[in-house]
Amino acid sequence: MNFEELDWPILDRLRRTFLDGTFGRAPYWQGPRDLAQYDATFGERIGWKWDAVLGELGRRGWKLPARATTLVDWGCGSGIAARRVAGAFPTFSKAVVSDHSSLAARFAGDRLRTACPGLEVGEAAPGQLDSIAGGFVLVASHVLNELPPEPRAALVALAARADAILWVEPGTSAVGRELQSLRQRFLGTHDVVAPCTHQGACGLLAPGREGDWCHHFASPPAGIHADGDWRRFAERAGIDLRSLPYSFLVMERRAAECGPRPDDGWERILGRPRVFKPEARLHSCGIDGVSEVIVPKRTLPALYKACKHDEAPSFARWKREGADVVGAETE
Ligand SMILES: C[S@@+](CC[C@H](N)C(=O)[O-])C[C@H]1O[C@@H](n2cnc3c(N)ncnc32)[C@H](O)[C@@H]1O
């Protein structure tokens, strides 16, 4: 969409709806124009978070489970998540986009058919997914905080039956912690692919950690800050283009004959490091829980510098001497 065509009354109404919490009662999409406006703006920004998640899965060499040939996008809205996921995994033969707004499902279906002409695309109301049988990947994006208990329970039940779960939410504390709890719930049947490097209990669900939540920061595409259209949009919509906080969860059904994957010592760095004059402090999550790691400027200058310039790695294998970190392998 050309940004000249932005329809501010629509975007303001949608933004108010998201902020007020007046959603969840009834579908709020009033027509295809709402969805097109959302897709080009708020939706595209969500797409950048998906790019970060899918990029990470790609770097890890993660493949879809072989039998998972259907993609199900639950609460699809304009379908940005389905399009990003289908684009990243061309092995899907079928996709189902689902929303309690039939307008949204139709819009998402049309956009997905255009984007992926080889894919068989169906549209379904959420209740119609109860009968979906094995072989599917559940995609959920920015839905949790809109859901009253009943649809939330239906979504979780569907996720529990999926061969893989790809779930992205805003990086707020409430939904971040909710994803942590869902991870715990699915751990009996599914392995965690990301964000965790381990299959143990979530360290941020430990007592005393109630104020923390698992979140990360994605980068918008290069050049966005210099793009006058996006800058004007961000200013008007009250959005910080530099900050793309997100929480996510990727899990895959564990093969019956396998136990949980072994731990390989890698830890994930959560949130953003705090940088002080002599050191940087990081939250690092591993099999033994979440710990604060101190990176001294004097002994680990390269890592300290990366933290300072907002280029901290996502993963580390720490070399510790007692409580001190004396070296790190990073990715
Ligand atoms: C913020 S939008 C996110 C849309 C899309 N997943 C994305 O990431 O851009 C939330 C979507 O959830 C849908 N939704 C809300 N309550 C729902 C429910 N009870 N059942 C199914 N979909 C629901 C809304 O209609 C809306 O399309």
Characteristic terms for this protein:
331 residues; alpha/beta; Rossmann fold; 8-stranded mixed beta sheet; 5-stranded antiparallel beta sheet; 33% helix; globular; binds S-adenosylmethionine
What can you tell me about this protein's structure?
This protein has 331 residues and is an alpha/beta fold. It folds into two domains: 3-23 and 30-253, 3-Layer(aba) Sandwich (Rossmann fold), CATH 3.40.50; 267-330, no CATH class. Helices cover 33% and strands 26% of the residues. The protein has nine helices and 13 strands. The protein has helices at 8-20, 32-40, 42-59, 80-88, 102-115, 149-161, 173-186, 228-237, 301-308, and strands at residues 70-74, 94-98, 120-124, 136-141, 164-170, 190-194, 216-218, 244-253, 267-275, 279-286, 289-296, 315-321, 324-330. The strands form two sheets. Strands 1, 2, 3, 4, 5, 6, 7 and 8 form an eight-stranded mixed beta sheet that branches. A five-stranded antiparallel beta sheet has the order 11-10-9-12-13, with helices on one face. β10 and β11 (289-296) form a beta hairpin. α2 crosses α3, α3 packs parallel to α4 and α4 packs parallel to α5. The longest helix has 18 residues, at 42-59. The model has no long low-confidence stretch (mean pLDDT 92). The site of S-adenosylmethionine (SAM) has 21 residues, from α3 and α4. Residues 24, 27, 43, 46, 75-78, 80-81, 99-101, 104, 126, 141-143, 146-147, 151 line the site of S-adenosylmethionine.
